[in-house]
Write a structure and sequence with these properties.
Elements lengths: L30 E2 L5 E3 L13 E3 L34 E4 L6 E3 L18 E2 L3 H9 L1 E3 L10 E3 L3 H7 L4 E4 L5 E3 L4 H4 L1 H4 L14 H5 L4 H28 L1 E9 L5 H21 L4 E9 L8 E7 L2 H10 L12 H9 L10 E8 L29 H10 L2 E7 L5 H10 L4 E5 L6 H20 L24 E8 L20 E10 L5 E2 L3 E8 L4 E7 L1 E2 L15 E2 L11 H23 L8 E3 L2 E5 L6 E5 L7 E2 L13 H13 L4 E4 L2 E5 L3 E4 L3 E4 L11 H17 L57 H14 L11 H16 L4 E4 L3 E4 L6 H11 L7 E3 L10 H14 L4 E3 L7 H4 L4 H8 L2 H11 L5 E4 L3 E4 L11 H4 L12 H7 L1 E2 L6 E2 L8 E2 L1 H11 L3 E4 L8 E4 L4 E4 L13 E6 L5 E6 L2
Parallel strand pairs: 11-12, 11-14, 14-15, 15-16, 24-30, 32-36, 33-34, 34-35, 37-41, 38-40, 41-43
Antiparallel strand pairs: 1-2, 3-9, 4-5, 4-6, 7-8, 9-10, 12-13, 17-18, 17-25, 18-20, 19-20, 20-21, 21-26, 22-23, 25-26, 27-29, 28-31, 29-30, 33-44, 36-37, 39-40, 42-43, 44-45
Length: about 1050
């Protein structure tokens, strides 16, 4: 390799390639005078190894099988990652309120992924936890290949180093072999001729390309360029293989699914157009599998894969939505038909199943429907087919599974399947048929990206690093003196024509500046991480460096290890040429800036484009990096890549710019990989572009060559020249929830409910009622134990210790009790009403002391028993115990926190997992799905947790709600749990929470008049005095968690409704 050149004087015009200025470089610098002679310096040649180098192939943590120890002890489930529930390889503890322990790879940004709260710090687990993790017994990950090793996790890496079945990857050609392959493994280096990586073999120095320094160097450079060309072609080949797509639409074709069947047929042309536009070589084959139920004469209809869109449309047009019988459908049969398709058609690497359904498969394992809603509730599929095995066949065949979510009753089925195949099925919202095209197109685009990742997974992955978006304390960070090299502006567009001297775009100025750099990066790309930085004058800049994590971690005072990544001394990708690569990025930015200025001369302000300039920097105390101005505030987006792919919603202006760069340079290059932010005043501000050129020896690793250039031109031709295909407008526009239309004739507002599949209304079970003795439930002992903290006056007790078996029995009996009472409870006064409790157990006990305990006092509680507070298990256990003991005196409604998706995040899941286990939490989730949502006291006081709904036209609408059920995203049940009054508006109003609706006082008055209700009692919102009236005292909000979360100064209230329906309040201050 030729030596690299370093200038001797600042601000001197230099036309030679800059070299690595790092003191740890493999090269000493060389300086040339104006005549091109060597003034001083020396060069060293790096010896290139000819032997094959092997690297142990990593295994997936989710594939790690944990086994009991020889003593039969089960491993502690508390040691699993709180996010992915796998055994963490690189655990860390977040400084969030719950101090979650998670895998490093499960963290992104500075918010806890579970409770979405900012964390103050990150630290490794205590030594004792790490020791316990190391003692977990595991099988060798290569057990399927014949290794029978079982041992402690701490010894796994040591074992894999000597395991004959462990996969090793050749660093030259990426071949995978095992030591057990014998001679093939030992002699592989004799046959290996492939270059080792895309970048490390590339010729990145312009001196090597344009300076005649002898025949040997010319031959070496030629070999290197050939190797890079071959490697680039492998990448392009992976994309084009991934763009061979087989997609099957698996659709429930029973009576309620007509709109979705039509949407598939009507939107398919848009989907095909979107794939062609965003994926230059897309080859799309389509299939359709429709299924119904066992009682139907035509149970399935199948179209094999075809590339004819008209044939696909004609087939789907012939499919009719009919049949169905019970609520559950023959999902087993539909998936079985999908497994029989020839997924090898088109030699497709991307294989996608789009499953659109509004009902689960047969068997209580897959749903919470009542037995009357599933003719095969107990036995499951009548033909004995196993749904997990069928889905497993699709997975083994490389099929990516997308589930179109329409109704909440399918959620359990998807959850059960994902428990068998973690994160395999991806759920997408498709309830609104107008979203089908966009969701399918985006899902296919994502699936192609996943396939590319799989096909190129033999490339060395970027190291894991920790990101932090916290603003650094600049007063504590030392300024470092660095030297900057910044490419001068391109002198003229002729410098970018084919055959132009490459030196014209590599002239630079050199200067010095002091910079303070944040200790942690806030973002990362494929090869570089980005950190906040400050110049000496206080201006904001960013630093971008190649990524290498710290290998030697030092312990702090508490015995913890550092969990950060540092800027490298040399990039693992670019090696000693790190600085040259950074300077090339500065050159690329300078060229992109020049072309953006030329493009913007004839554009309006909103369509102008500007690129941030980039300088290569180094210093005595810091490693090489690029220094750029910080992007303005705005949503950062990436719109295209460097192989011709565009995001579906990429703006036309950016597409026109890419084409302009190719035309104005006479076909020599194209600026791609466009990413940045939009400003209404400045237009598009972009960063980190790539340049495609036929000359693979220029413009760095982002230049993917002529093939990628052709792909980019093909994409732009479709996007800019062809007539776009639009999603067909629906036959009749849907009426918005917020649109007023007097002709609809509803008595309070202007809402027309969307058509819904008819759900099976609640019906009481036909089996005998469960009694506490049937489950050996010691109910009186449990109640006494839970009331003890109040009697003893121990306000700051830690926890009430309850046996898991007893709580499990309580849940089972309580669920049976709830299911025997109607969905709309019809109660009589006198009765006392409590609002949100949120795990504040001692305050609940105080309210029972104030108001009395059942059966002497009747109670109705409005929901939100769990989350936020520290004693959710005690709260819900006592309430359930009272419910089972006094079912006709004690009543519980459902709140929005009695829902898995909510209490999974806000504390209850963590409390269950910490004190018991995850399965314990899932039992409560099933119980919550059976709670009633509303109560009517003496036919004139309506009670619920959230509020009224535009779909609540009569009380039968509540009585007919299905139970058990999860909480849907919209609709009556959602509104009863989530809606809020709004004092600043009238009518139905868009919600502040982002879910359900808000309603004005006029809606309350009309509702009470039409429904003949005197008062609406609800909870759901913190109110300072514990209660608050609304709409002329026609609605009252009750909140019973004083000093809520320790952050509010509110009091709690109890509403007493007398026999004469008079209302009074009792206040409790915590």
């Amino acid at each position: 390799m030729l030596s690299l050149c370093m200038p001797e004087m600042r601000q001197r015009k230099v036309t030679r390639t800059p070299g690595s200025p790092s003191s740890s470089s493999l090269h000493s610098w060389v300086l040339l005078d104006e005549s091109g002679t060597e003034e001083k310096g020396q060069k060293e040649e790096k010896e290139v190894k000819s032997e094959t180098s092997w690297k142990l192939e990593p295994f997936r943590q989710e594939d790690l099988v944990v086994v009991p120890s020889s003593s039969g002890d089960e491993p502690d489930e508390e040691l699993r990652c709180a996010v992915c529930l796998n055994w963490p390889k690189d655990p860390m503890v977040l400084g969030c309120p719950s101090e979650h322990m998670i895998c490093r790879r499960c963290l992104s940004g500075n918010l806890c992924p579970l409770d979405h709260q900012p964390f103050a710090h990150i630290r490794p687990p205590q030594r004792a936890v790490l020791t316990m993790l190391g003692r977990v017994n595991v099988r060798c990950p290569d057990a399927d290949s014949g290794c029978d090793w079982i041992g402690q996790k701490a010894h796994l890496e040591e074992h894999r180093g000597s395991c004959l079945q462990a996969l090793h990857r050749c660093e030259r050609c990426n071949a995978l072999l095992r030591k057990s392959d014998g001679e093939m493994f030992a002699e592989h280096h004799q046959e290996c001729q492939e270059p080792s990586s895309l970048i490390s073999k590339s010729c990145t120095s312009d001196d090597e390309l344009h300076h005649d320094d002898g025949l040997n160097n010319k031959k070496s450079c030629s070999r290197t360029a050939d190797g890079r060309r071959e490697a680039v072609e492998r990448i392009i080949s992976a994309y084009e293989q991934a763009e061979k797509i087989n997609v099957c639409f698996l659709v429930d074709c029973t009576g309620s699914m007509g709109p979705h069947i039509r949407a598939v047929k009507e939107h398919i042309r848009f989907i095909v157009y979107r794939m062609r536009a965003s994926l230059p070589s897309a080859q799309l084959y389509l299939s359709f599998v429709g299924y119904r139920d066992h009682c139907d004469q035509v149970q399935s209809e199948v179209l094999p894969f075809t590339n004819s869109v008209p044939d696909f449309e004609k087939f789907v047009e012939s499919v009719r939505a009919s049949g169905g019988g019970d609520t559950a459908e023959d999902v087993h049969g539909g998936v079985e038909e999908a497994t029989k398709l020839d997924w090898n058609t088109n030699d497709a690497a991307t294989r996608v199943l789009i499953h659109i359904a509004d009902a689960p498969g047969h068997g209580s394992k897959y749903h919470n429907l009542s037995p009357g809603s599933d003719n095969y509730h107990a036995q499951g599929d009548p033909k004995g087919r196993n749904l997990e095995e069928l889905v497993g066949k699709l997975k083994d065949n490389g099929v990516q599974y997308i589930f179109g979510h329409i109704q909440s009753n399918t959620e359990k089925m998807v959850r059960v399947l994902n428990e068998t195949f973690p994160d395999y099925i991806q759920s997408k919202e498709m309830k609104n048929t107008s979203l089908v095209a966009e969701v399918v197109a985006a899902s296919l685009h994502s699936s192609v990206s996943n396939t590319v990742s799989t096909l190129t997974s033999n490339m060395e992955a970027s190291p894991d690093i920790i990101l932090s978006s916290e603003s650094p304390d600049w007063e504590t960070i030392t300024m470092d003196l660095v030297t900057l090299r910044q490419c001068r502006p391109v002198p003229d567009v002729a410098a970018l024509y084919p055959g132009a001297d490459a030196k014209l775009t590599r002239e630079f100025d050199e200067s010095t500046v002091r910079v303070a750099v944040a200790p942690l990066p806030f973002a990362r790309g494929e090869t570089r991480a980005t950190r906040h930085a400050r110049r000496e004058d206080g201006s904001a800049v960013v630093v971008k460096h190649f990524m290498v994590p710290l290998e030697d971690e030092e312990e702090d005072e508490d015995g913890h290890h550092a969990c950060v990544a540092a800027a490298p001394t040399a990039s693992p990708v670019f090696g000693a040429n790190a600085f040259e690569s950074l300077f090339t990025l500065s050159e690329v930015s300078a060229i992109a800036s020049f072309l953006a200025d030329e493009f913007s001369k004839t554009r309006e302000a909103k369509d102008k484009i500007r690129f941030l300039s980039s300088a290569a920097a180094w210093g005595a105390e810091v490693m090489p990096f690029n220094l750029e101005d910080a992007l303005p505030t705005g949503e950062f987006r990436r719109f295209s890549n460097n192989v011709g792919c565009w995001e579906p919603d990429a703006p036309k202006t950016l597409m026109e710019f890419s084409r302009f760069t190719h035309e104005v340079t006479k076909g020599h290059l194209m600026v791609v990989d466009l990413q940045g932010v939009f400003s209404a005043e400045e237009g598009w501000i972009l960063t980190d572009p790539c340049i495609l050129s036929e000359d693979l020896t220029r413009f760095g690793s982002g230049n993917m060559g002529p093939h990628a250039l052709d792909r980019s031109l093909a994409s732009l031709k479709v996007l800019l020249d062809e007539e776009p295909v639009h999603i067909p407008a629906p036959a009749a526009a849907a009426v918005s929830m917020y649109t007023r239309d007097p002709s609809l004739g509803l008595p309070w507002g202007s809402y027309k409910p969307p058509p819904r599949a008819v759900a099976t209304p609640w019906r009481p079970p036909h089996t005998p009622a469960l009694k506490p003795e049937d489950r050996e439930l010691r109910l009186d002992d449990m109640i006494s134990l839970l009331l003890a903290p109040r009697h003893s006056g121990r306000k700051n007790f830690k926890h009430v210790i309850l046996e898991e078996a007893q709580i499990t029995a309580l849940i089972e009996v309580a669920r049976d009790t709830f299911m025997r009472q109607p969905t709309l409870l019809e109660l009589e006064a006198p009765i006392k009403v409590l609002g949100d409790i949120h795990g504040q157990f001692y305050d609940l006990l105080e309210f029972f002391a104030i108001g009395g305990t059942p059966p002497e006092t009747n109670y109705l509680l409005l929901g939100d028993y769990v989350d936020r507070g520290k004693h959710s298990i005690e709260v819900i256990s006592l309430l359930l115990a009272f419910k089972v003991k006094y079912p006709e005196n004690f009543f519980l409604l459902r709140g929005n926190h009695e829902c898995a998706s909510v209490n999974r995040i806000y504390g209850f899941y963590d409390e269950c997992k910490r004190r018991y286990n995850v399965k314990f939490w899932k039992r409560f989730v099933d119980l919550f799905n059976s709670l009633p949502p509303a109560a009517l006291i003496d036919s004139c006081i309506l009670c619920m947790h959230g509020g009224i709904s535009p779909e609540l036209e009569n009380f039968d609408a509540i009585r007919d709600l299905a139970r058990p059920t999860d909480v849907p995203d919209t609709g009556l049940l959602c509104d009863l749990l989530w809606s809020d009054p709004c004092s600043d508006g009238s009518g139905w109003i868009e919600p502040d929470r982002g879910v359900s609706v808000m309603f004005g006082a006029d809606i309350v008055e009309k509702f009470c008049e039409v429904m003949k209700v005197d008062l609406i009692v609800r909870a759901h919102q913190v109110v300072e005095d514990g209660y608050e009236f609304f709409a002329g005292r026609r609605l009252v909000t009750i909140f019973s968690a004083p000093k809520y979360c320790g952050e509010f100064d509110n009091v709690g209230a109890l509403l007493e409704i007398g026999e004469d329906l008079s209302c009074s309040f009792k206040i409790h201050r915590s």
